[in-house]
Amino acid sequence: MKLFTVGPVEMYSETLNVAGKQIPYFRTDEFSGLMLEADKLLHKHIFAPIGAKTIYLTTSGTGAMEATIMNCFNENDKLLIVSGGTFGYRFVQICIAHRIPYTEIRLSMEEDLTKERLEEFNGKGYTGFLVNIHETSIGKLYPLKLITEFCKKNNLYLIVDAISSIFADEFNMENSNIDAAIFSSHKALALSPGISFVVLSPRLIQERVKRNSINSIYFNFNDYLNNFERGQTPFTPAIGVLLEFANMMQYIEDMGLEKKIERTHALSKYFRNAAINYGFHIPQYNLSNALTPLLFESNAKRIFQYLMDKYGYVVTPSGGDLADKLLRIGHMGNLSEEDYDALLAAILDVKEKL
């Protein structure tokens, strides 16, 4: 079976080798040292500001999103949320659940986030801005520079869910004035699912995390910050995934971050050019390197199932109104141009049979 999905993705042989070993006991100086070194490399490769800290959570991306909102905001805040798909709307659901006031910037699939749209909210007393920078449900990449400028102008905390973008697209936490970067192990890092990361800016830690009181034991960021001073988490983490993570950080360090992102970009460009040449329809909005959305008039669900059953090729299906119209092809993980040639040939074969 070959994964052309957006998480989990095809893993690299070195990662599989790490994953296949016995899980060690982790309350040791050796494990702590490994984590502290991996954390330094992580901060280097996402250009985290000096003083930034990482929260290592054994949870899904949604768990990390909710934990971040719980630790950084409360009912006295007023948040602005970009909601252009399933994952952007998840921030809305979290704010509803925690009774945090918010305004939803709802965008249709083809609608861009523009400066004019943001200007409606200038000087309106908002305290934070939440965005899934790559709306994975449709493959749209939002303009981070525009968002950064708006947040600076209005002195907003910027919370970025970069789960399916970080390490696939260029990402500079410091230059973009990001206060919390949220991402997960099973996307562009190509690791097993299980760990989600929240990298916090110094100002968010001092002004919010240390001052905010939350009704949670497991998701209390202050406990994680204190424990990671010694390279540990307060509760048992997904140890195996953290070992994969440490290995991947060193792999990226040796390879070079630019080469990793360039490779993902090259794969996405290769696939998109080939798909267009074959007559497939790709939306015209700005796309991440992480995935390509393919639009069909119908039968997307049947194509997904047929590809998996006959060829062993797994792409990412869609839900809701897009279930029969949209398939998402991932470009993260251990894939090659030859893999995409085979996938496109299979899709053409399936279309002819339906």
Structure description:
The structure is a single chain. With 354 residues, the protein is an alpha/beta fold. It folds into two domains: 13-255, 3-Layer(aba) Sandwich (Aspartate Aminotransferase, domain 2); 257-353, Aspartate Aminotransferase, domain 1. 42% of the residues lie in helices and 15% in strands. The protein has helices at residues 13-19, 29-45, 61-72, 86-97, 115-119, 144-154, 202-209, 221-228, 239-255, 257-277, 300-311, 337-353; strands at 2-3, 53-57, 79-83, 102-106, 128-132, 134-135, 140-141, 157-161, 180-184, 196-200, 291-295, 313-314, 326-330. The protein has a seven-stranded mixed sheet. A two-stranded parallel ribbon has the order 1-12. Helix 4 links the parallel strand 3 and strand 4 (102-106). Helix 1 (13-19) runs antiparallel to helix 9.
Number of E-state strands: 13
The CATH homologous superfamily of the largest domain: Type I PLP-dependent aspartate aminotransferase-like (Major domain)
Low-confidence stretches: none
Name of the top-level CATH class of the largest domain: Alpha Beta
Largest sheet report: 7 strands, mixed
Mean pLDDT: 97
**What is CATH's topology name of the largest domain?**
Aspartate Aminotransferase, domain 2
Distance between the termini: 22 Å
Shape: globular
